[in-house]
């Protein structure tokens, strides 16, 4: 089972409790509001960054410190490609540059249907399409002879506005955390820190 469990006297109360557990919208952040972005290697900043990672629900598609799922690109070495504002842009504007492995394709079929998703594998006579990254083992197989046209989407499958539940300091800590590549001092990898491997 995945999700939150609450105990309430009725469905209406349960829905109120669940709604209160969701992070509130802080602001619709824009890149121009981060001209002064300065990241840190301070241990407290990295720990707060991991908390921000969880708060923004990044762990639903990305693994971190051995926790979470791998529905999106591996972020352990993201710092090798992106840092600072460029890294932030990948989060605020995910369609600005899309990892080729996670490009969405639209397949227009000769029966009038349109299938949209990430092509996981292209065999000799069919496409294996993941239509929902939240269920990556659910593969739709489309025979190539049924495909009239295949186009690439310029829209990232990563949802926009993921970090709008974070404050500006939390976003700065998040970027610091991602730049660290999850490499923490040994004492932070201790089981009591919650960052054990």
Q: What is the CATH topology of the largest domain?
A: Cytochrome Bc1 Complex, Chain D, domain 2
Number of helices: 4
Give the CATH architecture of the largest domain.
Orthogonal Bundle
Average pLDDT level:
83
User: Total number of β-strand segments?
Assistant: 5
Question: Which strand order spans the largest sheet, edge to edge or round the barrel?
Answer: 4-3-2-1-5
Number of domains: 2
Please report the first level of CATH classification, the CATH class of the largest domain. Mainly Alpha
* H/E topology pattern: HHHEEEEEH
Shape: globular
N→C terminal distance: 23 Å
Strand content: 15-25%
Structural class: alpha+beta
Could you describe the 3D structure shown?
- The chain has a 5-stranded antiparallel sheet, with no helix packed on it.
- A hairpin with an 8-residue loop joins strand 3 (126-130) and strand 4 (139-143).
- It has 2 domains: 24-97 and 160-193, Cytochrome Bc1 Complex, Chain D, domain 2 (Orthogonal Bundle); 104-152, SH3 type barrels (Roll), CATH 2.30.30.
- 23% of the residues lie in helices and 16% in strands.
- Helix 2 (43-55) packs across helix 4 (168-179).
- Residues 187-197 have low confidence and may be disordered.
- The chain is α+β, with helices and mostly antiparallel strands and 197 residues long.
């Amino acid at each position: 089972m995945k999700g939150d469990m609450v105990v309430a006297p009725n469905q209406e109360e349960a829905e109120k409790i669940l709604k209160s557990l969701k992070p509130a919208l802080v602001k619709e952040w824009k890149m121009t509001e981060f001209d002064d972005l300065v990241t840190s290697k301070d241990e407290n900043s990295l720990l707060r960054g991991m908390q921000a990672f969880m708060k923004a629900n990044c762990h639903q598609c990305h693994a971190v410190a051995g926790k979470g799922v791998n529905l999106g690109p591996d972020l352990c070495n993201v710092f090798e490609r992106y840092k600072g504002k460029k890294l932030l842009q990948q989060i605020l504007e995910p369609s600005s540059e899309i990892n080729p492995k996670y490009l969405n394709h639209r397949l227009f079929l000769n029966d009038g249907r349109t299938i949209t998703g990430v092509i996981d594998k292209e065999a000799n006579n069919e496409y294996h399409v993941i239509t929902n990254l939240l269920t990556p083992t659910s593969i739709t197989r489309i025979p190539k002879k049924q495909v009239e046209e295949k186009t690439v989407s310029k829209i990232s499958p990563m949802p926009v506005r993921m970090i709008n539940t974070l404050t500006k300091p939390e976003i700065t800590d998040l970027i610091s955390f991602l730049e660290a590549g999850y490499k923490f001092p040994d004492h932070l990898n201790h089981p009591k820190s919650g960052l054990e491997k």
